[in-house]
Every structure is written in structure tokens, then in C-alpha cells.
Amino acid sequence: MIVDSLENVKHYRNLNERIKKAFEFLEEIDFESIEPGKYNVDGDLIFAIVSEYNTKEHEDARPEAHERYLDIQYIVKGEEFMGYVPLEDQEVMTPYNVEKDVIFYHAEVSPVKISEGMFALFYPGDIHAPSMKIETSKPVKKVVVKVAV
Q: What is the dotted CATH code of the domain comprising 2-148?
């Protein structure tokens, strides 16, 4: 897991070419004016999902991980807690769904506050529980860029 501001993206661009392309996409698009939906960046290798929602109770956030894609979750507007816990010794709640590239866990996550202009990068195997409220439920606009590994 990496948490930082998009202002500091220069430190992460060279992790690999796909991550570099994903960060370039995040820097180039005006997400405040873009509608929710799925956006193609590089076919099935890199795509983005823009969503708007209200943050939820911590117990309603289901800890998840992926195998084929890493997530770069970028907050356009609002703020939320994103829970994190290492994969080691966690109990599976729902087996891996190949089509959706997700597996859910029974896991206690540690909340990390992510505010406007910040991102969290979750590698496959990083258990994360996004969209958790900070004090009260509030609206968030977020972009999740999925990058094939």
C-alpha cells in the first residue's frame, strides 16, 4: 500500500510503465467535470471507474483484495477512511470471483484518512476496505484506476 498526494506522483511514476500511464491519466483529466462511469485508458490493461457516493459505516465496508489488478484510488472531492491490513493469515469470507477480480475477507482493517487530492495504491494482496465514513457520512467523488499486473 502506498498513500500520498497526487502532487508527489513523481516518486511513483517509474514503478512500471502501466503505473506511469495510470498516473498520467489522473494528472491530465479534470475529474470534477467528468461523469461517473467506466473510462478506457489502455484496454483491459488500464481502465478507470469514476464514482460518486456517500461514505458508509465501518462495519459495512467489506475488506477485499485483487489478484489481476492493482487499484489506485484517488479522491477528487470529499474524504474517507480506507482500511488496510496485510493479507497474511486472514480468513476468506467470499472466495475469489475471477470475473470481478475480487476476494472478500473477514479482517480487521486499520483506517487511513484519504482526503481530496490524495491517492492510495493497493497492490494485489493488499486487503483494503474503502469508502468508510469519517465521523459522519458525507459525499465523495472518487476515481479508481485498475492496472493489470
A: 2.60.120.370
CA distance 70 to 99: 15
pTM of the complete model: 0.95
Per-residue model confidence as pLDDT tens digits over 37-78: 999 999 999 999 999 999 999 999 999 999 999 999 999 999
- The rounded distance, in Å, linking the Cα atoms of 9 and 12 is 5
User: Could you state, in order of their start, the residue ranges of all structural domains in the chain?
Assistant: 2-148
Residue 91: its H or E element: strand 91-97
CA proximity to 147, closest of 7, 28, 41: 41
Q: What is the Cα–Cα distance from 57 to 70, expressed in whole angstroms? A: 24
Query: In terms of DSSP bridges, do strands 79-85 and 110-115 run parallel, antiparallel, or are they unpaired?
Result: antiparallel
Identify whether the C-beta of residue 80 lies closer than 8 Å to the C-beta of residue 94: no
